[in-house]
Amino acid sequence: MDLLNQFHVRMLINYMVGSLIAVFGVGSVFIFHTLTLSSEETLILLGIMVLSGLIMISLELFVYSKHIRPLVHFFKKGMNPQDAYMTAHSFPFMTVRRIMGPHLLGLSIPATVMTLFALSLGFLTLPHLYVLYAWIGAILIATLHAMIEFFMTSRAVQPLIASICARTDENLKLDGVKVISMKWKLLLSMLLIAVFPAALFLLAGQIRESAETTTAYWNWAFLVIVVILFVSIAGAVVLYRNMEQPILELRKNLEQVQHGEFHEMPNYYADEFSTLINGFNSMVSGIKSRDAENERLLESFFSVFAATLDARDSYTAGHTTRVADYSTQIARRSGLSGDELDLLRKSALLHDIGKIGIPDSVLLKDGKLTDEEFDKIKEHPVIGGDILEKVNLPEHLRPLLDGVRHHHERFDGKGYPDGLSGDRIPLYGRIIAVADAFDAMTSNRPYRKAMSYEQARNILQNGRGSQWDPAFIDHFMDFYEERFKT
């Protein structure tokens, strides 16, 4: 069932609920329990109500078809999204107009005509003044029905408004749409809930003052009190639910923001909540823009460091980029995705940042390093870790340190700087170790020429489980077969 048909069904259900409560619930209770009627008169009045109800429904369906037309044109033909948007926002007010117009008049006028006709023929023996009382009661009941339908329609129309906004790129506006503030919603609703029962009670009391016995009067009075309590509770519940929904939605979205999920809320309100949700969406949009800018700056930061390292040592130009690529390929086959994969790539780009602190005489030496010089080179993971520590990385970026400090650890515990072994070596360190070793072996260095890919592959395979994590060697071999054997 498409969205528009769902709306038709929802409106039908709302109408039936509102009618049952207001017309056939409150209205019929007061008619048939306030008046003293014979069985024949009861049947006549029931018939009048049924015939008037059919006329009322026919008129309402005619007006409803006119009111719904802009929405039909949009959802069936994609026409005039602005008209559909304004119609959807106006639909609660249109519902009130239908109830106070064709609903009230379509029921009351035919009922009045038929009642007066029955009185003139002697089928009913009620005082003619009761027709006026019936009109007053009908207006009170229609007003109650209108309030119920207004709040129920306000909720039913929200999916339509959200769908209209999602289906068009136009800047939709509420020009000319009637807006009722929460202040007036509260004021009018409380006024109706307070006045309606009292007015109906006074009206029924005027009719009932000729009650024959005290027992009959108190039986009727008890029924009136029950109806008054029901109407008051129902009105309060409808009003509360109308106010509760946007508050719950806003709280839910604020909790998502707290957990790092930034989703704008659909705004299908036309009161103070509309301004509140627009403010929330502006906040979310600002956070997303700021995060995007921060991400661009962060990417630039990593690229600058990688370029700095490459510019310093022409023999290792492109090394950091290739290590980041190989590391990502291994990690993806290991099941990493999303933020974890992105953090690993950043860590790989920075894995040799500590070489900034190594003297050129050692780092760029054209020949084999002495033991002392090699010990100096081995300091670069610690230097890199210290540099990042001083940057005061936010908590979500601290895993970058793992790859920088621990990419020279060995799986058997004979690596540096901390001599960690097995799974005690952080995940990023174990992955980058494989990628770094392969690229180092297949790159030219001042003291040796690059190995062939096949030679480097064999060395990695032989070091499986001793120097490198066997699981990541296996994932690298899968990548190797795809990248270098095709």
TrEMBL record:
<dbReference type="InterPro" id="IPR003607">
    <property type="entry name" value="HD/PDEase_dom"/>
</dbReference>
<feature type="transmembrane region" description="Helical">
    <location>
        <begin position="12"/>
        <end position="32"/>
    </location>
</feature>
<dbReference type="GO" id="GO:0007165">
    <property type="term" value="P:signal transduction"/>
</dbReference>
<keyword id="KW-0472">Membrane</keyword>
<keyword id="KW-1133">Transmembrane helix</keyword>
<protein>
    <submittedName>
        <fullName>Metal dependent phosphohydrolase</fullName>
    </submittedName>
</protein>
<dbReference type="GO" id="GO:0016787">
    <property type="term" value="F:hydrolase activity"/>
</dbReference>
<dbReference type="Pfam" id="PF13487">
    <property type="entry name" value="HD_5"/>
</dbReference>
<feature type="domain" description="HD-GYP">
    <location>
        <begin position="294"/>
        <end position="486"/>
    </location>
</feature>
<dbReference type="InterPro" id="IPR052020">
    <property type="entry name" value="Cyclic_di-GMP/3'3'-cGAMP_PDE"/>
</dbReference>
<dbReference type="GO" id="GO:0005886">
    <property type="term" value="C:plasma membrane"/>
</dbReference>
<dbReference type="InterPro" id="IPR006675">
    <property type="entry name" value="HDIG_dom"/>
</dbReference>
<feature type="domain" description="HD">
    <location>
        <begin position="316"/>
        <end position="441"/>
    </location>
</feature>
<feature type="domain" description="HAMP">
    <location>
        <begin position="241"/>
        <end position="292"/>
    </location>
</feature>
<feature type="transmembrane region" description="Helical">
    <location>
        <begin position="130"/>
        <end position="151"/>
    </location>
</feature>
<feature type="transmembrane region" description="Helical">
    <location>
        <begin position="44"/>
        <end position="64"/>
    </location>
</feature>
<feature type="transmembrane region" description="Helical">
    <location>
        <begin position="217"/>
        <end position="240"/>
    </location>
</feature>
<feature type="transmembrane region" description="Helical">
    <location>
        <begin position="186"/>
        <end position="205"/>
    </location>
</feature>
<keyword id="KW-1003">Cell membrane</keyword>
<dbReference type="InterPro" id="IPR037522">
    <property type="entry name" value="HD_GYP_dom"/>
</dbReference>
<dbReference type="InterPro" id="IPR003660">
    <property type="entry name" value="HAMP_dom"/>
</dbReference>
<dbReference type="InterPro" id="IPR006674">
    <property type="entry name" value="HD_domain"/>
</dbReference>
<feature type="transmembrane region" description="Helical">
    <location>
        <begin position="104"/>
        <end position="124"/>
    </location>
</feature>
<keyword id="KW-0812">Transmembrane</keyword>
